[in-house]
Design goal:
two-stranded parallel sheet; globular; 65% helix; single chain; two-stranded parallel ribbon; 19 helices; mainly alpha
Amino acid sequence: MLCVAQPAAAQAMFPLLGFVNDEQATGPSVVHSSYQGANNAAAASAGHSQQRIQLEPSQLYAGLQAVSLAPASQGADRSAGPNLELLLKEATEAYRAGDYSRALALCQAVSAALPNRADVLLLMGAICYQLKDFQQCIVYNDRCILIDPNLAEAHANLANALQQLGNIDMAIVYYQSALRLKPFFTDAYNNMASALVAKGLIPEAMDCYMQALRVNPRLVDVHNNLGDLWRAQGVLGRAAAQQCYLEALRLDMLYAPAWRGLGDLLRENAELVQALSCYQEAVRLRPCYADAFTGMGVVLKELKRRPEAEACFEAVVRLRPSCALAHGNLAGMMYEQGKLDAAISMYHKALTIEPNFPEAYNNLGNALREAGRYDEAIACYSACIQLQYSKAVQQAQLQQLPL
């Protein structure tokens, strides 16, 4: 959450763990999901024909969600003339309306006259974040901190930009400094949790979410995020996860991610019809919700409603055209229905997006083998084995590093 100061079966299913760190899943990740977790290994043998459906991460761990406002008095220089105050008010309104380029131009006019006004720099940093100019966002928030070291919002917004650039360790440092300055800063707790998930520090992330809920127990997105983390713990976490999702829905029955999370939980418990109802409600509330379409596709596949499942995976590809997993899931459904040429083409698209995708190589090998293209199939199986071997070597080397 950014802060700105006011101016004045045939296919084996991959579990949705909530922690997928792979950029092959959604492209450069905000954080959501990250979600950073386990990729199941594909079978590498030429005789193993199972196709795997991989579930994409939801975006809930992206953190950095809506905009909150800091007190207007922070960093403000009331010596500014009425024209500059009017410009700053217009800039804030443009920001809220999503007209970020105009908001930035207005802020730059104010900043030229008042270069050391912290609230202007804070707003400029937030605008640059929305424009995905994360380096400039860091510059503005850094200047803001030099002027007012106690402005917690600047520390938190700088952390958000660092997290987007993949500097998770420094992001955590700045979230911690924001919380030292403002101990009840729920946005900072929520976003620091996403950074901790990205580091694999799940208990610490859960503690952050619980701290935020102690401050404000009505934070719907935090209940939902905590539910996803509990669900990732497996059977032992299911009851707590269900409680989190239900509490989120009690607070807001129109919150689509909670319906998606409850659907995931029911699906993992083999309650497929109930899970399908939850996914359908999530899609009704948010028609472009790729994660809900993915879960729905998996459930429909398990219910043997393959044409409907394929339609769901096609929707995900439309919504996330740069997502390798989306293409891989659709290819798997095509393969299962005997559409070998279409499946082969879709697996090639997945590998164009993400060349280091061993499951796609394995499944492409299966499709090529069934199409009688044995040499190509062998090459795909070899690529799968090599990628899996390289991954195992890297993991072993990491385990040997001194703590």
